Amino acid sequence: GYLRAIIVADTFDDNIGYSCVSDAYRLKKSLQAISSQLHMKAEITVLDKLKCHCVDLDKWLRCLKPSANDVIMLLYTGHGFEDPLGNNLPVLHLPDRQPRGALLQEAIDRFPCKLSILFLDCCNRSLEGYRSFKRPFHPLIRRNQRLAGLKHLFRNTRAAITVCAASPGEYAK
Prior knowledge:
Layout: E1 2-9, H1 17-37, E2 41-47, H2 54-63, E3 71-77, E4 80-81, E5 91-92, H3 101-109, E6 115-121, H4 148-156, E7 159-164
Parallel strand pairs: 1-2, 1-3, 3-6, 6-7
Antiparallel strand pairs: 4-5
């Protein structure tokens, strides 16, 4: 199967853009290493700089044609805020539109894949009073690292996994 991933990174933001650049680079390199070790073909799309728009994310979702053996990942790093409709997943803050995390989850849940992962690295509270946090450096996964747990996850798991950096009302740190 394929590892089909999209990384959406708000790299132009004055407060967190530098961190999002690093996140996107590390995520892409790590996913390439994982796919190499698992002998999966990788299709990794990065939406950053001028491509960090909901219209580009929508296009990726519309064009995605996964098989039942594929892994699909949607990874976001940028600003987010609490969903006014009360859902636990945040709303993403993209330049052209603010997509609800809950709707993105529904979109990837409809695909016939063995594993889908939605990873939202953003705040989940009002943008008012936002303050920037320094983030620690997180290393990337390298091609020669032992990935026993990840091999089981990517090869043998049939699931939909959602990971958020913050619960409703929290800042992501």
